[in-house]
Amino acid sequence: MTIRILVADDSITIQKIVAMAFENEDAEVEGIGDGQEAFDKVPDFKPDIVLADVDMPGLDGFELCQKIKGNPEFAKIKVLLLASDFEDFDEDRFKECQAENHISKPFKSDDIVQMVLQVMTGESAVETDVLPDSVEEKMTSPALRNCWSLLKGFPPIPWE
Questions:
Q1: Residue 25 forms part of a structural domain
Q2: Radius of gyration of the chain (CA)
Q3: In this predicted model, what pLDDT tens digit does every residue of 1-48 receive, in sequence order?
Q4: Is the peptide bond preceding residue 72 cis, with omega within 30 degrees of 0?
Q5: What whole-number distance in Å separates Cα of residue 104 and Cα of residue 83?
């Protein structure tokens, strides 16, 4: 069964990293940069899970989650909040909005795939704090090196 993933994040880079992470999975990924636009997309796209940035224009991730969970038609859609590790995460708003989980950015491709699968299967409700242990760990493939370069604001590294 194909998992339908809606990525609501104003960072095009994060949208692309998530799409690349799920290239070899049975998933369809749609990216959108505004929380209100993401909510408006839900009826047509019919996502199984929404990855929502807690700090984006329109509706922030907490507000988007509340609107999804507060609508009986969408309430079963899973929500995974994306939060920058460089900003304080509001645990009270997290509990209030009823998101299934949250993950810190930046994250490794394998970790976002694992987290989404855990949320979809209901395995883990504990926050996962995923940060790269080292730059070398991130540089295991040309695609990951390019993602890391983009995250750091550098141009992509040429493929080898």
A1: yes
A2: 15
A3: 799 999 999 999 999 999 999 999 999 999 999 999 999 999 999 999
A4: no
A5: 5
Task: Return the pLDDT at 85.
Answer: 85
Instruction: List the CATH number of the domain containing 31.
Output: 3.40.50.2300
For the chain, what is the mean pLDDT? 84
Beta strand segments in 11-100, E: 27-32, 49-53, 78-84
Counting Cα atoms < 13 Å in the Cβ hemisphere of 156 gives 11
Domain assignment of residue 35, given as a range: 3-134
Q: What percent of the chain has pLDDT over 90?
A: 69
Residue 26 lies in a domain: yes
Within a domain: 115 = yes
Reported as type and span, the H/E element at residue 103 is strand 101-105
Segment 136-157, tens digit of pLDDT: 444 445 555 555 455 555 555 5
d(CA 12, CA 85): 18
State the total domains in the chain: 1
Is residue 96 situated within a structural domain? yes
